[in-house]
Structure prediction request, 394 residues.
Amino acid sequence: MKYKPSGFNSKLVHGAGAKDPLGSVITPIYQTSTFAFESADHGAACFAGESDGYIYTRIGNPTIRDLEKTIAESEHGFDGIGCSSGMGAVTTVYMAYLGAGKHILSHNAVYGPARGIIEGTFSKFGVESTYIDTTDLEKVRTSIRPNTALIYLETPANPTIGISDIPAICEIARQHNIPVCVDNTFCSPYLQNPLDMGADIVLHSLTKFINGHADIVGGVIVTKTEADYKKLRPVMVAMGCNMDPHQAFLTRRGIKTMGIRIDRAQENAMKVAHYLESHPKIEWIAYPGLKSHPQYELGKRLMRGPGAMMSFGLKGGLEAGKKLMDRVQLCVLAVSLGGIETLIQHPASMTHSKLSAAAKKEGGISDELVRLSIGIEEVEDIIADLEQALAGIN
Prediction:
């Protein structure tokens, strides 16, 4: 019997068991657009789906395939679909489940572009949408329509850090035969597995915690069942938002250290959160590891750790926040998250700037909200940088 590692980090290091025919310890970069067939019959069999041979990198590639299977295993899913970006993954899901006259129900603080593409593009083709606070189960129940075709969650939410009850929402969805997709980017498979809680689809921006080094853009979809996989993969292929082999190679390298990176980052985050919570210039802070978080107990039940993402507001409002972001020296003023470096940004004017003022207000994306993605630097250095920056705010 072939030995298979059981530990999470062991699985990430060794992958889904793909072996290179030449014995390479790591899956090589198959930097090719097309693959040669053994014969005319073999080519026909590949196109008919009767052979697992490769045809064309837009359809599939061994480097990408190893990453897809590794992530699918980490999410306890049937299989994975690599995409060129996180938004490529989001759009693939939307294209597969939505259409004219269909309705999507989602969180009102969901990642800005994930909402923006529905309201700005999909709406042109007759797709309807409702954005609510999905941490309120009663709102979820009462917002479902006869034509609701997808419930799309992001939990913890970006950037408010609100936590939605995945199992409870999935149970509500099952009563109406509505598929549930969860954006698990903020947690990664290391801290949360939505498919185990009843979700049908989980997706990630690979750019963030899974790759972890701020050097690629990518996305992935993982399905619970073969039926959903077969529904989604042809959409990705047809849209042409496949990964590049080198992109997949770098992500495959990054994922090997995901567990130890997140352990360090969330250890830092807990200390930073306690520091900010007690600082006299901080009005409020949202971090799942603090007992002051409104879904603290729910977070403990759903997540294996509080993660490395937090948001907070300064007593001086937007102007104080701008001064803070302009004064930091170690923390990097940049969008994105989940890397080894600490990042700070202002969602209302950056990642969520395309949302209307009403949508921002409804989603709790206030002007004073500052978002922090904590990295793996020495925590003393992170806190010292925040301290000197805060000291300059009157």
The two ends are 67 Å apart (CA to CA). The chain has two domains: 58-255, 258-391. The CA atoms of residues 54 and 61 lie 7 Å apart. The chain has a mean pLDDT of 94.
